[in-house]
Amino acid sequence: MQLQDKQKIAVLSAIAIAIHSIENLIPMPVPWLRLGLSNIITLIAFLLFGLRIAMLITLIRITVSSMLIGTFPGPAFILSLSGGFTGLAGLCFSSIIPFLGITGLSVMAALSNISGQLIVAYFLFIKRPEAVLVIAPFLILLSTTTGTVNGLISAGIIRRINNKDMI
Amino acid sequence: MGLGLNRKAFSLLDGALITSLLVISISGFIFMDKFLPDSDSVRVEVDGRLHGIYPLFEDRLLTVHGPIGDTVIEIKNRSVRVVSSACPNKLCVHQGFIKRGSIICLPNRVVITIGVSSVDAITG
Questions:
Q1: pTM, whole model, 2 decimals?
Q2: Which residues of chain A are at the B interface, by a Cβ-Cβ cutoff of 8 Å?
Q3: Do B18 and A144 touch (CB under 8 A)?
Q4: SS3 content of chain A, % helix, strand, coil (to 5)
Q5: What is the pLDDT of residues A63-109, one digit of tens each?
């Protein structure tokens, strides 16, 4: 691993941890509902630096911020981690599709994130198929919305980075 | 490297993807009742043990034997009630017909549930 890569990972992880932890303080109507704003960093890292760096940032971000929040080895951490990695896998697969824009990639990542979490939750905690069926439309609506918002923000950030030629 | 540099912020395909997902989820909300035929059943538990699961659409009268006596349950017109009970306060009888949720008779340890309370499994 190059020193430059390490610096990128450190800086991006720090930003992602900060976003993830601060987001946790925002009150939500339902406790397990999250905006997933830290996925913006994952998306940008994937688009600019590739899968390997994005994966490391996701792992560091989820582990460290769940330690900060206090959910570290519990179910919330397991769900968060599985969601993070299935989201990244979904992002990687959908990046093969040529005409998908950054917003579309973000929506695909959000969908795979929530599907991964739902599958893990089903096998570990819920074990009731009808519960998954009831919650599915709500989760699709939610992840589509947050995915779109995150995608548009990421696209804006990437455009600015390109214009200023910062990399 | 640089995968994102030649991608549009928002393409036509993105719009199509988001629109179709919104349509899927909203129609999911609307047709939810039709996807859940399993809630057409009545589950009767006595003293912590399952007594039986009965279809909601078949009218019937059944008697279960609890620790302090008999409880008579009636299923009629897709709803359930307790007709008579051996319990002292008769709260279960006063609850009348229910179409969803549950009737719980604590003294006689009888629990009648329509369908399954599935949302609680996730929020809880």
A1: 0.70
A2: 30, 32, 44, 46-50, 95, 97, 99-105, 107-108, 111, 121, 126, 128, 130-131, 133-138, 140-141, 144, 148, 151-152, 155-156, 158-159, 162
A3: yes
A4: 80, 0, 20
A5: 999 999 888 888 889 999 999 999 999 999 999 998 899 999 999 99
